Amino acid sequence: MVRMRESSEMADSFGSYTAGGISDAAAVERTLAGEREAYRVLVERHSAYVYRVAYRMMGNSHDAEEVVQEAFLRAYQKLRQFAGNANFGTWVYRIAANYAIDRLRQKKNEESRREVSTRKPESDTEADPLNRIRDQAPNPERLAGSAQLATKMQQALQALTPAERTAIVMRHWDGCGIDEIAEVLKSNNSATKNTVFRAVQKLRQALKPFAESRGAARAVAES
Questions:
Q1: For residue 71, which of 99, 45, 90 has the smallest C-alpha distance?
Q2: If we measure between CA atoms, which residue out of 64, 45, 44 comes closest to residue 54?
Q3: Which has more pLDDT, 46 or 114?
Q4: Rounded Cα distance, 152 and 210, in Å
């Protein structure tokens, strides 16, 4: 009877975890007390949101999954540093954003080294990410539909610097305030506003051919 009662209590406890019926603060407290199952509640509750952010920043599912895994691993390792009065979702979001910035900068450096090693001696023109986008993208006349707009937007995001991409994703996709973005970028508010502004201007420039071609197509259809 005792053994059955103990098993029932364990099942009830596990069921409460899988149902996610505890608050973030309680899950953090239980995790710190040694109940590792409690941390799974936090992962399941916030992983989808963190993945969406990571995908927008990294541009592909493989790197986005890496960012999510690393973010939750780092959050677990630093859980005792977590301020209980803060929001766990916001905290792990910042960890993911910071790690994504590091990975983007690392990849950019790797790409720069490959470009230098493969560059032709007679060509000394600096590689322009926006030029690369224009070369790889279809002609404006062939751009049509939301799927192509999404592709064009992703290409434009990839052309931004890591800081610009982080700023635009946090500001215009996730609705974060300038203070929060500045904290992630380790910058001041004025510089962060300028970063957001530059990112918006670059995206508008990159998407301008698409907008113009759509407008021309509508004019032809209506004439």
A1: 99
A2: 64
A3: 46
A4: 8
Q: Position of tokens 């052309």?
A: 159
pTM greater than 0.70 (yes/no): no
For residue 2, is pLDDT > 60?
Answer: no
The two three-digit tokens of residue 146, written as one number: 């939301």
Q: End-to-end CA distance of the chain, in Å?
A: 84
Q: How far, in Å, CA of 183 to CA of 92, rounded? A: 13
Residue-wise DSSP of 16-77 = HHHHT-S-HHHHHHHHHTT-HHHHHHHHHHHHHHHHHHHHHHHSSHHHHHHHHHHHHHHHHH
Give residue-wise pLDDT tens across range 44-61: 999 999 999 899 888 899
Say how far apart CA 39 and CA 37 lie, in whole Å: 5
In one-letter notation, the amino acid at residue 104 is L
Torsion of CA 163, 168, 169, 170, to 10 degrees: 90
